[in-house]
Structures are given as C-alpha cells and as structure tokens.
Amino acid sequence: MNRAETYRNIGLLFGCEALTRTGAIIVLTTMGLAGRDMAPDPSLATLPLALVPATTMLTTIPAAHFMQRWGRKRGFALGAVLGVLGGLVCLAATFQHQFYLLCAGAVGIGAVNGFATYYRFAAAEIADEDFRSRAISLVMTGGIVAAVLGSSLATYFKDGIADIPFAGTFICMAAIQLLILMTVSFTSLPQPEAEAEKRVGRALSRIARQPRFVMAILGAVTSYGVMSLLMNATPLSMDRHSHSYADTTQVIMWHVLGMYVPSFFTGHLIRWFGEERIMMSGGGILLLSVFTSMGGTGMENYAWGLALLGVGWNFLFVGSTSLITGTYDASEKAKVQSTNDFLVFGAMVLATFSAGTLEQLIGWRAINEVVLGILALFLIIFAVLWVYSSRRLRKDTGWDDTSESSRLTAHTQ
After folding, report:
1. What is the domain-level CATH number for residue 225?
2. Is 196 domain-assigned?
3. What is the per-residue pLDDT across 263-287, written as a single tens digit (0 to 9) for each?
4. Model pTM?
5. What is the C-alpha to C-alpha distance for residues 250 and 67, in angstroms, rounded to an integer?
6. Sign of the CA dihedral 207, 210, 211, 215?
7. DSSP assignments along 212-226, one per residue
8. Considering the domain boundaries, does residue 195 fall inside one?
C-alpha cells in the first residue's frame, strides 16, 4: 500500500473513530441518567452503562478472531450493524419506560465497541514502522470531533421527542452507526494473509514473558480503569451537587478534548522519548488530575480535573498501544490484541459498575482517594519493571526482547 493510499485509509478510520467516540459520549452523558430515571433501585442506575463495556469485553475476543479470518472491513461493518440495533432497542425502552429493555439495548451498543476498538490496530497495520505511532495517534484524534459534536448532540436531542426523555438521543445513536457503516464501505484495508492464518505463532504465555508486553498491558488497563471510574462517576456527582445537565455535558466535552487533542503530538513524543517515558508522564498527569478533583465540587474542579484526566489517559493509553504492537507478529495479533482489549474492558466493566455504587456510598472525594492509591501502585510497579527490564537488556539475557521486537516488526506491516 503506497503512502497516499495509507493516508486515505487512515482518514477514513479517523472518521469511524470520530463517529464511534461521538456515540460513546452520548452514551456516557445519557445512559446513566436514563438508567437512574428507569431503574427500580437507585443503586442500579449505572447497570446499563456498565453493560456497555461488559459486552465490549466479551466481544473483543470473537471480534479479533472474526477479523483475522474475514478481514477488518467486514468486522467493522458487522459492529456498526450491531450498534444500529442497540440504539433502536434503547429507543423502544424510552417509549415503554422499561429498565431491562434499556439494558438489552446497552448490550447491542457495547457489542459495536468490541469491533471498533481495533481501529487503532488497523491503522498500525497499514503504516510503516516510522509512521506507526503517529498513525495510531492520528486515528485517535477523531475523538476531538466527538468532544464537540457528542456533547452538542446529547444536549440537543435529549428532549427531541416531547414527554419522552432521551428518545431523541437514542435515535441519534442509531443514525451515527449507519454513518459508520457507510464510511467503512469506502475503506480498502488489506485482507488477512493466508500464510499468517496457517501459522499458529507462539503461545500467549511465551509472548507474555516480554517485559514490554507486561508494561503495555499494565498501562492500558490502568489508564482505562482509572479514567472509566472517574468519568462515569462525574455526571452522577455533578447531579448530586446541583450542577445542570448542560454543565455536565460541558465538563465531559473538556474531558474528551483532553483525551484526544494530545494525539496530534503524542506520536511524535513517543518517537523522541520512547513509550516508557510517555507512559510514566501519563501516570503523573493522572495524579495531578486526582488532586485537582479532590479540591472541591465546583464547576472548575470538575472541568480541570476531567480535562487532566483525559490528557493523562492519552499519554498512558497511546504509549501502551504503541508499545504492544512490537511484541507480536501477524499470526499472533488476534490473541495478543484481544487479550489486551479483553483486560482493558474488564477494568472498564469493574470501574463503570462500581461508579454508581461508590458515588452513592462514599462520595466524590473518597472515590478520588481510591484512585490515588491505584495510581501510586501502578507507578511503583511500572518503574520497577522498567528498571529491571533495562538492566536485563544491557546484560543480553533471556529477557532481551529488543532483537525479537525488531524481528517481529517485519511481520506486522
């Protein structure tokens, strides 16, 4: 694939990412409040929201193997169809005021993300080695469009149908998935290699012996777990402290801008300083976010805290994604990518489902104190792994995965 074709496909993947993240913001700002409105028990308010990453987690593995067998394009199209169905079921739930029907729709919406999570890996696979980290970052900048568009659409369509709150937003979500389906149809992503399909590759246990693999998984899981807990608790906390729905959408907008604006330069920073340093910086920014959020429940605390949360997530997650792409070859990508995303969304499930209960039982400040402990533990473990692996690399021992990563690069193009 020549460079012009690569850019064209990355542009289309950018569009898919932008639309997907737009839908995700609508889900974030709508599902918890819709759940609270319909739930038979307030503690179940975030159950539909938790089912989204839960279904995503369960879908990541079959989605990865489906795409390894049938190709990225067909997989992304199938995911969009599932998203349309999920949005329509949620719409029916608003008309009938049925909580468990809303939960069923959330399952469909979550399934689409099990496929869409691989947009960034698709970008990495069509880019050469020097362009890989920037390709990942460029696709993820689609979230910038989502930051503005998602918040605006969530507010505009909330009362789009009189006397039926949130019905308009679910119509919008279904329409977004139709647009994704159309965008995917214009991509020309490479088909799976026949030889790669026949190769079994190394066992996952052997791949996991690489310190870069362990560090990448640890960073991805921590970034998404911490971000999901605080982000999903935010609308509930702001509602409890008498902030308006419009204020909440503004805070979420700043959070999503923080998540994706850095993607314009994260890829360059990774090339200059390396994944490990960028990931450590991301952990430090997340700590700053927590201290900001612990300062109070005013609009400025939520806005600055969530914006910094987004920046820290970007550094840590993009760095993790770039790091893990050098740990496998083409025959191993399904097992490695699906394991990574299964664990990531597992952390999201735990964090999302816990958010409502923790916000109700212990409050916003205490949630941030919990996150502070998690981040401190992550930074300590990550630093120990980094130092240990660096020393082993210099000694040229069995832990030296530098030569292996170089060998694998040729297979991941």
Report:
1. 1.20.1250.20
2. no
3. 888 888 988 888 899 999 999 999 9
4. 0.75
5. 36
6. negative
7. HHHHHHHHHHHHHHH
8. no
